[in-house]
Amino acid sequence: MKGALRSAFFIALKDMKAYYFKPPNISWGMLFPLVFILAFYLRSPIDFAHLIPGLLSLSLLFSTTSMEAIVITFERMTGALERLMLYPVSVTTILLGKISGGACFGITVTVVFLLCLIIMFPLHLKNPLLFLASVVISSFTFSTLGAFVSVSVKQVFEAQTLANLFRFPMIFLSGVFIPVNSLPSIIKPIAYIMPLTYSIDSIKVSFGYEPQIMHPLLSLLVLTVFAFIFLELSVKILKSRMS
Amino acid sequence: MVKAHSIDDAVTVKELRKSYNTFSALDGISFSIRKGEVFGLLGPNGAGKTTTIKILSGISMPASGTAKILGYDVVNNPVMVKQNIGVVPETSNLYPELTCTDNLIFAGRLYGISTEKAKTGAKELLHIFGLEEKRNVLFGRLSSGMKRRLTVAASLIHDPPVLFLDEPTTGLDVMSARALREVIQSLKDRGITILLTSHYIEEADRLCDRIAIIVKGKIITIDTPEALKKSVRTEKAVDVKISPYTPFIEKEFSKMSTAVKYEKREEMFRFFIEDLDTFMSEFSAFIKGQSLSIESINTVSPSLEDAFVEITGLRREIMIQEKGGGK
Ligand SMILES: Nc1ncnc2c1ncn2[C@@H]1O[C@H](COP(=O)(O)OP(=O)(O)OP(=O)(O)O)[C@@H](O)[C@H]1O
Ligand SMILES: [Mg+2]
User: Do B109 and A6 lie within an 8 Å CB cutoff?
Assistant: First the structure.
């Protein structure tokens, strides 16, 4: 167990060194969230502050998954992922390392945005601890989603397409702009099967909003369950692809 | 290092089969490798060498059959198998974005070695493989021969008792290939069990204690290089160098009283003969008649290549076909 965590840590560390925190890649990871934030600010500068918690969660989703999907599909193509299998570590450990790398990147990008936004707007972070827990757990969940997407496809562009299939509906249905409770009742169930919904809800609570769905701790629990499901699926798919 | 049972065989393979869709890549191969032995898998493209290595490394599942490394089953206990082997894959696939040193340290860490130990090990290996100057260069920036050497180095970072080398010298220049063969020899001297695959018959001849010849997923024969050579039908041959070298002399050979079978080689001729004495007296008379002289004459014993050609019934050239890289 300890050995597995150590190996996962070194895999994540290597990914961050080799890919995530290289200057061109950092900016690529920030691009999507930055575009969102700017677009919505320019549209309605007055009630922009209300959108911030949702946008932070969205930024987390995009920064975590976009680079990670590229990294995993790329390494599958070059054989680097197969090489990792030569080491005495399990497929779960390997994926856990990959997922942690993506999650750390998402957390970093989002924290940078948060700091910028705090300087520019009157934000009141009511519950920093809940905020931190939400950011960490959300990014891990999103990262497992990214891993699931990238082990399911062959090419980098397919990974992006499939990821967008998951991501874009989430933008509109997860409560970033329209509160989940005001969605038509036919669409509501869709919102409930989207991890972003729970992430936004708990992040909003940390900014002092009322929970829309459930107690934030329950939301975090749901996110964790999502993470386990995506991880388990990714392990299964990767194993079958490898043999 | 973890020790398994005190058995004499480091690797035992029984009736291993593997198919890709309907294509059978391995058709029930069996062999065992004794501890400390260098064992060669020799065969043409697509014979199933890489497939075998992948299964023995625990990264590919066999359809049926068993394989054990130091007593650990590759299917049921892949982690212990991986802990005890070093693997050099067919392609040099370390991380292009990491330096030589960082690649070795990364490999060491994933084998569970402390970072301190991995650092010392990396230094030693860079020295052994003549890559000290490149220690801070990105792997992606190395020449293909250097990449190959670093890939071999990375397989040794955890001091494995068993080593699998899939075409270790492919893509290396003559000097680097020789240097690598010397390293392999020294690993053997340290008691490491080695399984290597090769296209180079000569390389297998020089390095291996025993060779398995594999064609189309089947092992045709397993024996020592010497025994394989002995098994060749003894056709006597002599290499003759004529002075001065006259390529046109060929036309005159028919004038000799008994017909001769020959092959033209670089600046000399190889004659396939029945009896040395008869050939010698006749040939010297012929040469005198042409006012030439014999510069050198050597009898030729069958090579492993001859054995390979005879055993497999394949053409000589089939083994020289190359994917990427030169000799
Ligand atoms: N992933 C795969 N999918 C389908 N067929 C495969 C796969 N891997 C190998 N094969 C087939 O299995 C056969 C054996 O391949 P293998 O790579 O083991 O040969 P090899 O002896 O290593 O050849 P080479 O000398 O070219 O490296 C080949 O016919 C190859 O086309
Ligand atoms: Mg091969």
Answer: yes
- Contacts of the segment B75-82: beta carbons below 8 A, 24+ positions apart: B79/A88, B79/A89, B79/A90, B80/A88, B80/B2, B80/B4, B81/B56, B81/B57, B82/A86, B82/A87, B82/A88, B82/B57, B82/B58
Which residue minimizes the CA distance to atom 12 of ligand 1?
B25
Domains and CATH numbers, chain B: 9-84+160-230 (3.40.50.300), 237-301 (3.30.70)
Of B20, B53, B314, B322, the residue with max ligand 1 atoms within 8 A of its CB, to mutate for a pocket test, comes to B20
C-alpha B316/C-alpha B321 separation (Å) is 10
**Chain B residues with CB inside 8 Å of A78's CB?**
93, 96
> pLDDT (tens digit, 9 = 90+) per residue, A57-112?
988 998 888 888 888 988 988 888 999 999 999 999 999 999 999 999 999 988 88
Taking the CA of residue A152 and the nearest CA in chain B, the distance in Å comes to: 19
3-state SS assignment for residue A51: helix
Task: Say how many Å lie between the CA of residue A162 and the centre of ligand 2.
Answer: 34
pLDDT given at position B316 = 64
Q: Cis omega before residue B44 (within 30°)? A: no
pLDDT at B3: 45
Residue A182 DSSP label: G
- The protein residue with its alpha carbon nearest to ligand 1, atom 31, reads B46
Whether complex ipTM tops 0.95: no
pTM as predicted:
0.82
Q: What is the nearest CA distance from A229 to chain B, expressed in angstroms?
A: 24
The more confidently predicted of residues B151 and B297 is B151
Hey, are the CB atoms on A86 and B89 less than 8 Å from each other? yes
**pLDDT band for position B257 (cuts 50, 70, 90):** low
Burial (CB count within 10 angstroms: exposed 0-12, middle 13-18, buried 19+), residue A234:
buried
Q: Identify the pLDDT of residue B320.
A: 56
User: Contact A87/B107, CB-based, under 8 Å?
Assistant: yes
Burial label, A194 (beta-carbon count in 10 A; 0-12, 13-18, 19+)? buried
- Give the 3-state secondary structure of residue B14: strand
- Give the N- to C-terminal CA distance of chain B in Å, as an integer: 35
Ligand 1: does its nearest atom lie under 6 Å from the Cβ of B50? yes
Ligand 1 mean position, distance from CA B317 (Å):
19
Distance B216 CA to ligand 1 centre (A): 10
Q: Residues B38-75: pLDDT tens digits? A: 999 999 889 999 999 999 999 999 999 999 999 999 99
**Structure tokens, A106:** 């998402």
Chain B interface test: which of A76, A86, A94 (most B C-beta within 10 Å): A86
> Chain B partners of A6 at a C-beta cutoff of 8 Å?
109, 112
Give all strands of the β-sheet with B64-69 in edge-to-edge order. Answer: B23-34, B9-20, B64-69, B72-73
